[in-house]
Amino acid sequence: MYSAGDVRVENVPDPKIVEPTDAVIRVSRACVCGSDLWPYQKMEHSDTGRVMGHEAIGVVEDVGADVRKIKRGDFVIMPFAFSDGTCAFCHDGLQTSCIHGGFFGTTEVAGAQAEAVRIPLADGTLFPVGAHADDALMASLLTLSDVMGTGHHAAIIARVTLGKSVAVVGDGAVGLCGVIAAKRLGAEQIIILGRHADRIALAKDFGATDVVSERGDAAVERVRELTGGFGVHSVLECVGLEQAMNTAISIARPGGAVGRVGVPQEQTIPGSEPAFYNNVTVGGGPAPVRAYIEDLLPDVLEGKIQPGRVFDRNVALDGVPDGYRAMNDREAIKVMVTP
Ligand SMILES: [Zn+2]
């Protein structure tokens, strides 16, 4: 990506081992993220461009001399953040705060919308799946690199447990995975706030019990009506815009919690006053998806959850620019890339 709206497919030098803790993986599947749409809409021109993509599954092609756990030929999930797996925060299961870590698809570390990608700190970062997956499973495994883990994180931070009422703000891939996560954690009522017919239909399939398509005050009123006037125990904020956050805080019941995973597009958190007077806990951030793979992978392998259904388009590398456009125009929910 060179600037807003300017995505090009180019030949670049093959990634190779730079540090002895690196690996190189050949990408089996990658995808375009909703969060990639923020630079797609706003990025200032860069002469060198940015190799995009932070979600991938692939096969290890090469490992550095100090890599111990990951082997050539391993089929692996690449979480969107790299991490050493050994620092205090990695031990706490918060790999996105790893003191040696960072994010793929930045100006410093090339991304995965590519044929191959260099993986820093391979032993800590990569999660070997064990078996090579068939095509049907690929899509769901790919979601464990970001959107399924991120939706799960929102649900954990929002304290979703058995019998709770939950609202999910946003009907993108993360919001839809948030519905799966809420259902999986035992939520009794799951209200999806969204307005795209195809996404709503999928949300219902995933376990949403109610749909609110209004916005702003009307949405708040509707959620209160659906919850005996009080609002929900748990809100998953999966958008990142001011209005979404305002709505999220306004529909939480007193003592409730908001788990925010939408990448914020403003410097301040709105809704300070209602959050304070209602004792609403507001938390969240970049999901430590590396920590959640262990939990979520068995359900994916057994077919108990099928988060891969959020992909409604598959392109080769040369289709990536149009994939961005399609997601930005809300023509596609999420675009998978098969290099
Ligand atoms: Zn660490």
How does this structure look, described?
The chain is globular, with a radius of gyration of 19 Å. It is α/β, with parallel strands linked by helices. Helix 5 crosses helix 6 and helix 6 packs parallel to helix 7. The chain has twelve helices and 15 strands. Helices cover 31% and strands 20% of the residues. Strands 1, 2, 3, 6, 7, 14 and 15 form a seven-stranded mixed β-sheet that branches. Bound molecules: zinc ion. Residues 83-84, 86-87, 89-90, 98-101 line the site of zinc ion (ZN).
Annotation keywords:
339 residues; alpha/beta; seven-stranded mixed β-sheet; six-stranded parallel β-sheet; 15 strands; 31% helix; globular; binds zinc ion
The total of helices stands at 12
Q: What's the total count of β strands?
A: 15
Gyration radius from CA atoms, angstroms: 19 Å
Strand proportion, as a percent range, falls in 15-25%
Q: For the terminal residues, how far apart are their CA atoms?
A: 17 Å
Unreliable runs: none
Structure summary:
By secondary structure, the protein is α/β, with parallel strands linked by helices.
Topology:
Layout: E1 23-31, H1 37-42, E2 56-63, E3 75-78, E4 81-82, H2 88-91, E5 102-103, E6 116-119, H3 122-125, E7 127-128, H4 135-143, H5 147-157, E8 165-169, H6 173-184, E9 189-193, H7 197-206, E10 210-212, H8 216-226, E11 232-237, H9 242-251, E12 252-260, H10 272-277, E13 281-284, H11 289-301, E14 313-315, H12 320-328, E15 335-337
Parallel strand pairs: 8-9, 8-11, 9-10, 11-12, 12-13, 14-15
Antiparallel strand pairs: 1-2, 1-6, 1-15, 2-3, 3-7, 4-5
Helix pairs in contact: 5-6, 5-11, 6-7, 8-9
